[in-house]
Specification:
This protein is mainly alpha-helical. The protein has one domain. It is 72% helix and 0% strand. It has five helices and no strands. The longest helix is centred in the N-terminal third of the chain and has 33 residues. The N and C termini lie far apart (58 Å). Keywords: Membrane, Transmembrane, Transmembrane helix. It is a multi-pass membrane protein. Pfam families: DUF1232. One of its GO terms (cellular component) is endomembrane system.
């Protein structure tokens, strides 16, 4: 029984690892696609927002909030990535995927601009709540 459970856990962990690698590759491909002149402006703009948010050191919903904290990482981010991929022509996306193979080898770059925007949003929300309470 224990061996069967251990095997299921290893299979599940391996699947999760593959999904994370694929998402990292897609983020790299979206970053590269956002720099190309043959990608439509609206796709570039949304791509930059998604990549910036994914690389931001700060989440819109902080991870310490039970369940909801991981909602953006597990559901919202993959949905946003899938949406942007549909906006970019498939041949361009395939080229960018090939180029993004090694983009995160040196570690995850930080996007402090997106982090600053998220901090500003939280400050505005907190200020609004404090003003209503006082």
């Amino acid at each position: 029984m224990d061996n069967k459970l251990n095997k299921k856990f290893k299979t599940w962990f391996s699947t999760i690892k593959q999904i994370v690698k694929k998402i990292k590759k897609e983020i790299g491909a979206l970053y590269l696609a956002s720099k190309r002149p043959d990608v439509p402006f609206y796709a570039k703009l949304i791509s930059i927002l998604v990549v910036g948010y994914s690389l931001s050191p700060i989440d819109l919903i902080p991870d310490f909030i039970p369940i909801l904290g991981y909602l953006d990482d597990l559901i919202l981010l993959p949905l946003a990535i899938a949406f942007v991929i549909k906006l970019i022509p498939s041949d361009i996306m395939n080229e960018c995927r090939q180029q993004s193979e090694y983009i995160f080898n040196e570690g995850k770059p930080k996007n402090w601009v997106a982090g600053g925007i998220i901090i500003c949003i939280w400050i505005i929300i907190t200020s609004y709540i404090l003003i209503k309470i006082i």
